[in-house]
Amino acid sequence: MPKIKYKVILSREGRTLLLSLTKNGQRSSRKVIQALILLNADEGELSEQKKRTCKDIADFLQIGERMIERIKKRFVEGGLELALEDKPTEREYKHKIDGDAEAHIIALSCSEAPYLACNYQPKRLVAFLFQPLIL
């Protein structure tokens, strides 16, 4: 099965926006790396460098080739804004403790310290705090 190649061609405005993102210093490192990927992968007429492969870009930026492919795909399919935005996670996380356990921890932290609390070792202190919760 042939590998799908995504061709990145930036407009003058898009190139200017990406250059400002990389030089400003006010953006997250992830956004800067995404902008650098698009700038280095640009195959348009405005590109000042020779065509670079994903391997060259990955070695230069010290990231994985798969990340470059994903950014290029998002750019080709959805445009510049979509390529620079991280999609929100769809994963649902389970709660580690419920409301009763949280209330118990708060009550214990606000109460007086147990006798000889300074002699407790961390493992024993944790065991003491969660003693009523163990079934």
Question: Overview of this structure, please?
Answer:
The chain folds into two domains: 12-84, no CATH class; 99-133, no CATH class. Helices cover 54% and strands 0% of the residues. The chain has helices at residues 12-24, 29-41, 54-61, 65-78, 80-84, 99-110, 122-129. Helix 1 (12-24) packs antiparallel against helix 2 and helix 2 (29-41) packs across helix 4. The protein starts with 11 loop residues before the first helix and ends in a 6-residue tail after the last helix. The relative contact order is 0.10. This is Helix-turn-helix domain-containing protein.
Keywords:
135 residues; mainly alpha; 2 domains; Helix-turn-helix domain-containing protein
Write a compact overview of the structure shown.
This protein folds into two domains: 73 residues, no CATH class; 35 residues, no CATH class.
List the helices and strands and how they pair.
Blueprint: H1 12-24, H2 29-41, H3 54-61, H4 65-78, H5 80-84, H6 99-110, H7 122-129
